[in-house]
Design goal:
Blueprint (H helix, E strand, L loop, with lengths): L1 H17 L4 E5 L4 E6 L2 E8 L5 E7 L4 E6 L3 H8 L3 E12 L2 E6 L2 H8 L5 E4 L9 E6 L4 E6 L5 H12 L14 H13 L1 H23 L2 E7 L3 E7 L5 E7 L5 E3 L13 H10 L1
Parallel strand pairs: 3-5, 8-10
Antiparallel strand pairs: 1-4, 2-3, 4-5, 6-7, 6-9, 7-8, 9-10, 11-12, 12-13, 13-14
Helix pairs in contact: 6-7
Length: about 280
């Protein structure tokens, strides 16, 4: 019983002393800040709630801590030294200063942290898509420290150019390519719906163009009509046609010319020959 009372008294004393301390911590908008006092973890709502960034905080009570000022660079560097670092590729911006990132070295990440997977990095104040950074892990969250000055800037440039040109992940190739680079590029592509849409359009166009070329025709344009493609093409003689083509097997839904109801007996490749023989 005495031990319990002693513990209660210690906790009460710590709570009183809590309002007299100041601590450095990262904070995201509408998030919480944490500190350790006498071996115990305390979590506070930050005031103001809209505050985002690194700050020096002081508890008002056991639930709320107010922002006092920004930490100096030496203070921030000292804090970072307490956390484990990891080099990562920035993939895409999730929200505000939070980015999705991926380890530049999967083996190193697995050895030191037990995993190699995409992570959310908070308070990213500089950097761009595919740029390499250094982030620190506090056991629960990742925090941006700095751009990786040792990284080759050409890698990010190559990846951004490939992404701009809607290059499929399997076709991205350049000197210094690694499995991790291909993974972060693929991760970025999957995050961007517009990229995936354009890449699928390229695949569909290639498929239609090749089918027509085998029959002697040439693709001019095509449009997605939900269950089929409306394909505009020309024969060797330059005769223009518009046909409705099934997406699954390229069979003819409607040839655009009279085939006496036998449209579906042909596919896009054979349709070219039928049209030219008429």
């Amino acid at each position: 019983m005495t031990n319990i009372r002693k513990l209660i008294n210690q906790l009460a004393t710590q709570e009183v002393e809590l309002t007299n301390i100041q601590f450095l911590a990262p904070c995201v908008k509408n998030g919480r800040v944490k500190t350790r006092v006498a071996g115990m973890i305390y979590t506070f709502e930050s005031q103001p709630k809209k505050n985002s960034g690194w700050g020096i905080f002081q508890p008002i009570n056991e639930k709320i801590a107010k922002f006092i000022e920004e930490p100096s660079l030496p203070q921030l560097e000292e804090y970072f030294q307490l956390l484990k670092p990891l080099r990562l590729f920035l993939a895409c911006q999730l929200k505000g200063q939070t980015w999705l990132a991926y380890p530049t070295n999967e083996s190193d990440s697995k050895q030191r942290f037990g995993f190699a997977k995409p992570v959310a990095v908070h308070l990213v104040t500089e950097g761009a898509m595919f740029e390499q950074i250094i982030a620190r892990f506090d056991g629960a969250s990742w925090w941006f420290e700095d751009i990786d000055r040792r990284a080759d800037p050409l890698i990010a440039e190559e990846l951004r150019e490939a992404f701009k040109n809607i290059t499929p992940p399997k076709e991205v190739k350049f000197k210094g390519m690694t499995p991790e680079i291909r993974t972060v590029y693929d991760l970025m592509a999957r995050q961007k719906k517009e990229f995936m849409k354009k890449m699928q359009h390229q695949k569909d166009e290639k498929r239609l163009r090749e089918a027509l070329a085998m029959g002697g025709g040439e693709l001019q344009n095509f449009r997605d009509r939900s269950n089929y493609w409306q394909v505009e093409w020309v024969t060797r003689d330059g005769e223009r046609h518009t046909s409705a083509i099934n997406k699954n097997d390229l069979t003819v839904v409607s040839a655009g010319i009279c085939l006496s109801g036998g449209d579906r007996h042909f596919d896009l490749q054979s349709l070219v020959g039928v049209v030219e023989q008429r």
